[in-house]
Amino acid sequence: MTSTHLNSLYTEIIFExxxxxxxxxxxxxxxxxxxxxxxxxGDEITLRLHLTGSDETxxxxxxxxxxxxxxxxxxxxxxxxxxxxxxSVHHANEIADSFELSMASRxxxxxxxxxxxxxxALLGASKFPGRVKCVLMAWKAYRAALVEAQAAIDRRxx
Length: 158
Hints:
The chain has 5 helices and 3 strands; from the N terminus they run αβββαααα. The protein is of the alpha+beta class.
């Protein structure tokens, strides 16, 4: 994909993830569950995270979610789950960091497609501050779920 994804708010990849969401539906087992709402537009997500291992060996075994709202927020949740499942927490955080940095660029950072995969399709929203919140809601939910999951694992190990 070229930098043309920065010139379009909706792309075929977004429509595809919206119509055929990856890893949707809340599954067990899970280590944490968070619920986020975007009050400005009504988008909502409930996201569950299941980790294996701990500390440097921690791996995201599963990301499951129930997302309601606009196509951008639902596609973002699908892309996030597809990118982060079965990744080490360290690598997943590299992906999230890169994606969030590109989203903050207001269309100036084309993103690292090798790292953020289909996430580049969402970067057109970076030019529209009202849409950035829709796209980032799933990613903020992931960050919150990760903190809770790591705390739960630490409590179990203690």
